[in-house]
Write a structure and sequence with these properties.
219 residues, alpha/beta, 10 helices
């Protein structure tokens, strides 16, 4: 009698990454990819249909917010365990990802073995993070510090999402559509971001967002 394989869903907007993950996971005797998506809206709809045990989610989305996607997934499909696969700075994003509802956090530069290891850990009901990420987070928490020394760490998850999209060149209307909020709400977020980052004008905000985006590693 064959043992039923655990169903894994992949959410990443890079086709080559999805192809790599699908090949990696389908080679495992106990795992199988049941679906994939390249944007948040498609992922939410597909996951409800395919009912996976684990969703592997990239934080770097071309539209919307990876952190907001995690929150939406936990609200709509609470039984799905989420493993984040990301190139983002560990200190700024790992803690936020776990608070949003993720069970695992793996950096893309880590070995393929770590991805499979993370999936199996969350399937067993455990949390997973690489030793590097875990040690850094514990050190910051023990010292009572924020997860990053960057001023951007002062932003809320929603403010960070707006800041990211500004850095990608999106305008207020497009950001509102991506985050499913009103333009007035986006403007309010922009005002809060300027205050927290000590920026005086919209132009300074845009310049800082673009600079920050350009200095981040590719997801």
């Amino acid at each position: 009698m064959k043992t039923q394989k655990a169903r894994i869903f992949i959410m990443d907007d890079h086709p080559l990454v999805r192809e790599w993950l699908t090949s990696l996971i389908n080679q495992q005797p106990d795992l199988v990819v049941c679906g994939e998506a390249d944007d948040a809206a498609q992922a939410l709809q597909a996951i409800e249909t395919t009912t996976p045990e684990v969703a592997v989610v990239d934080l770097a989305l071309k539209s919307g917010s990876g952190l907001e996607l995690i929150k939406d997934l936990k609200r709509i499909c609470p039984g799905v365990a989420i493993v984040v696969l990301s190139m983002h700075d560990e200190m700024l994003y790992a803690e936020r990802a776990f608070r949003a509802g993720a069970r695992g956090y793996v950096m893309k530069r880590e070995s393929t073995k770590k991805v499979v290891e993370a999936i199996r850990h969350v399937l067993d009901g455990k949390r997973y993070m690489s030793e590097q990420v875990g040690a850094a987070l514990v050190e910051h928490w023990a010292d009572g510090r924020q997860a990053s020394d960057s001023p951007v760490a002062l932003l809320s998850d929603r403010e960070l999402a707006v800041f990211e999209l500004l850095g990608q060149g999106q305008e207020t209307r497009s950001i509102a559509e991506s985050l499913h909020v009103s333009m007035k709400t986006v403007q309010t977020f922009c005002a809060r971001i300027k205050e927290k980052l000590k920026l005086g004008t919209e132009r300074e905000l845009l310049r800082e967002a673009v600079r920050w985006q350009e200095n981040r590693p590719e997801g």
